[in-house]
Design a protein that fits this description.
The complex is a heterodimer. By secondary structure, chain A is mostly helical. Chain A has a single domain, classed as MetI-like fold, CATH 1.10.3720. Chain A has 8 helices and no strands. By secondary structure, chain B is of the alpha/beta class. Helix content of chain B is 38%, strand content 23%. In chain B, the strands form 2 sheets. A 6-stranded mixed beta sheet of chain B has the order 6-7-8-3-9-10, with helices on both faces. The radius of gyration of chain B is 18 Å and the shape is globular. Bound molecules: adenosine-5'-diphosphate and magnesium ion (MG). Magnesium ion binds next to helix 1 of chain B. Chain B: It is a peripheral membrane protein. Chain B: Keywords: ATP-binding, Cell membrane, Membrane, Nucleotide-binding, Transport. Chain B: InterPro entries: AAA+_ATPase (IPR003593), ABC_ATPase_HisP-typ (IPR030679), ABC_transporter-like_ATP-bd (IPR003439), ABC_transporter-like_CS (IPR017871), MetN_ABC_transporter-like (IPR050086), P-loop_NTPase (IPR027417).
C-alpha cells in the first residue's frame, strides 16, 4: 500500500469535502426545505388545482433519477439558452429533489398533529394561517426531525453525483487523483472512508437531537 | 326576563346521511348556566360546536344580544363567522392544550397574538387567573407535566383569558380519572357563582342539578325535554328522559 499517496491525498480530499460537499448539501437542503414546506401546503390545500400541482411535482421528483434531473439542468437547459454554472446547477437540482422528498415528510407531520390543536387555535381567535404557523408547524417540526435528518444524510452521499457535472467536491477530487496516479482502489476506498466518517458524525448528531426531542412529547 | 345573550334557532346538521341535529333551539340569557345532557351520539358536541363556528350547521340561525342573525342556510361570510366565534370560548373534552407551550404561554397566546393585549398585561392577568384555580406555581410548566385535572383547569383559564361572553364546556370531566373530577367541577361551579354565562355538556348529573338554571335533554337530534333541574331530574315528563336518567343513575338495574 502506498502510504505516501494516502497521506498526500487525505487533506486535499477533506478540503474539497469541507469546501464542496458539505456546503453544497447544506445550502441545497436549506433551500429544499423551504420549497418542501410550500409543496406540502399545496398538497394539503382543499383546492383541487393546488393539491394537483403539488402531487404532480412530488411524483416527477420521486419518479425520476436524481442523476437525470442533474443532467437535464446542466446539460439540457443550455440547449434552450439557459446556461447555469456547475455549482448553481447542482444546488438547483438538489434543492428541487429535497423539495419533493421532504414535502411528503412535512405533509405527514402536519397531518399527524391532532385536529384538536387546530380547533384550539381557532377558539383562541387565530386564523387558519396563524394557527398553522404558531401551533401546528412547531409540533410538526418535532415529528419531522428524524426523517428529515435521514433525507439530509442521503443528500450528503448523493452530492457525489455533482462530480458528473464538474462540481469541485470530494468525489471529483478523488476521480482526479485516481486518474493521475492510477491507484483506483486506494483512492476510491479513501473517499468512501471520508463519506463514512461524515455520515457517522451526522447520524450521531441525529441520535442526540432525537433524544432531546423525545423529552418534549 | 332579560334578553338572550345568545339565541340559536332550528339548528340542523348532517354528516353525510347522518342527520345529527334536527332543529334544535337554544337560548342563553346573561349569567345563565344551561346544561346539555343526553345519550352518547345524540348530537350534544355537534350542537356546542355549532354555537362557535367549529361546526357549520346546514340550517338554522344564531344571534347574539338580539342582534343580526347568522342564517346558516346561506353561505356565512367569514367576518360574521369570526365575530360569532369571538363571543364564546370552548373548553374541550381533551383539553387540547398546546404541548409546545408553557402553561402561561397557553393562556396568553390568544390575548397577545390575536387581541393584541400587551404581553406584560396579558401575563399579569393570566397569572391572576391561574392563581384563582390554584395553579399559580405551574405557570412555567409544560402541559405534559400536569395531571389531567390540572390540564383541564388550565384549559378553563385559557378560555377565561379571552374574556368571552359565553363559556362552552364539552364534557370537561369525562376524560378524567374519577378522583380528579371534583377539582374541575369546583372551578366551574365558582365560575357559575361569579355570574359567567355557560353552556355545559355533561354527564355529571349532580353538577347539573346544583349549578344549572336550565337543563336540556337532547335525544336523536332534538330537544326531547327541557326544564329547571329540580323538575327535570325529579319529575321528568318524557318516557325517554326517565329511561336515560335511570340508565345513568342505576346502571346495574
Ligand atoms: N366530523 C364528523 N363527521 C362525521 N360524523 C360526525 C362528526 N362529528 C360527529 N359525527 C356524528 O354525529 C353524531 C353525534 O355526535 P356528537 O355530537 O359527538 O354526539 P354526542 O356529543 O352527543 O355524543 C354521531 O353519530 C357522530 O358519529
Ligand atoms: Mg360529545
Amino acid at each position: 500500500m502506498d502510504v505516501q499517496l494516502l497521506q498526500d491525498s487525505w487533506w486535499p480530499m477533506w478540503r474539497d469535502a469541507i469546501l464542496g460537499t458539505i456546503p453544497l448539501a447544506l445550502i441545497s437542503f436549506a433551500l429544499g426545505l423551504v420549497l418542501a414546506l410550500g409543496v406540502a401546503l399545496l398538497r394539503l390545500s382543499s383546492r383541487r388545482l393546488l393539491s394537483g400541482i403539488g402531487r404532480v411535482y412530488v411524483s416527477i421528483i420521486r419518479g425520476t433519477p436524481l442523476l437525470v434531473q442533474l443532467f437535464v439542468i446542466f446539460y439540457g437547459l443550455p440547449t434552450i439558452g439557459v446556461t447555469i454554472d456547475p455549482w448553481p446547477s447542482a444546488v438547483v437540482a438538489f434543492s428541487l429533489n429535497v423539495g419533493g422528498y421532504a414535502a411528503e415528510v412535512i405533509r405527514a407531520a402536519i397531518l399527524s398533529v391532532p385536529t384538536g390543536q387546530w380547533e384550539a387555535g381557532y377558539v383562541v381567535g387565530m386564523s387558519h394561517a396563524r394557527t398553522l404557523r404558531r401551533i401546528i408547524l412547531p409540533q410538526a417540526a418535532r415529528v419531522s426531525v428524524p426523517p428529515l435528518s435521514n433525507t439530509f444524510i442521503s443528500l450528503v452521499k448523493d452530492s457525489s453525483l455533482a462530480s458528473l457535472i464538474l462540481v469541485t467536491e470530494l468525489f471529483r477530487k478523488a476521480q482526479e487523483i485516481a486518474a493521475s496516479t492510477t491507484e483506483f482502489l486506494l483512492i476510491y476506498a479513501e473517499a468512501a472512508v471520508i463519506y463514512w466518517i461524515i455520515c457517522t458524525v451526522l447520524s450521531f448528531g441525529q441520535d442526540r437531537i432525537e433524544k432531546k426531542l423525545e423529552q418534549y412529547v | 326576563m332579560s334578553e338572550p345573550l345568545m339565541s340559536a334557532r332550528g339548528i340542523h346538521k348532517s354528516f353525510g346521511d347522518n342527520h345529527v341535529l334536527r332543529g334544535v333551539d337554544l337560548d342563553v340569557r346573561p349569567g345563565q348556566v344551561v346544561a346539555l345532557i343526553g345519550p352518547s351520539g345524540s348530537g350534544k358536541t355537534t350542537m356546542l360546536r355549532s354555537l362557535n363556528g367549529l361546526e357549520m350547521p346546514d340550517a338554522g340561525t344564531l344571534a347574539f344580544d338580539g342582534g343580526p342573525e347568522i342564517d346558516f342556510s346561506r353561505p356565512v361570510p367569514a367576518a360574521q363567522r369570526f365575530a360569532a366565534r369571538d363571543r364564546s370560548a370552548m373548553v374541550f373534552q381533551h383539553h387540547n392544550l398546546f404541548p409546545h407551550k408553557t402553561v402561561l404561554q397557553n393562556v396568553t397566546e390568544g390575548p397577545v397574538q390575536v387581541r393584541k393585549v400587551p404581553r406584560a398585561e396579558a401575563e399579569a392577568r393570566a397569572t391572576d387567573l391561574l392563581a384563582r384555580v390554584g395553579l399559580a406555581e405551574k405557570r412555567d410548566a409544560y402541559p405534559r407535566e400536569l395531571s389531567g385535572g390540572q390540564q383541564q383547569r388550565v384549559g378553563i383559564v385559557r378560555a377565561l383569558a379571552l374574556q368571552p361572553d359565553l363559556l362552552l364546556f364539552d364534557e370537561p370531566t369525562s376524560a378524567l380519572d374519577p378522583e380528579l373530577v371534583g377539582e374541575v367541577l369546583h372551578v366551574m361551579k365558582s365560575l357559575a357563582d361569579e355570574g359567567w354565562t355557560m353552556v355545559v355538556v355533561t354527564h355529571e348529573l349532580q353538577f347539573a342539578r346544583e349549578v344549572a338554571d336550565e337543563v336540556l335533554f337532547l335525544d336523536g337530534g332534538v330537544v326531547a325535554e327541557r326544564g329547571a333541574p329540580a323538575q327535570l331530574f325529579t319529575h321528568p315528563r318524557e318516557e325517554r328522559t326517565k329511561q336515560f336518567l335511570h340508565r345513568i343513575l342505576r346502571p346495574l338495574d
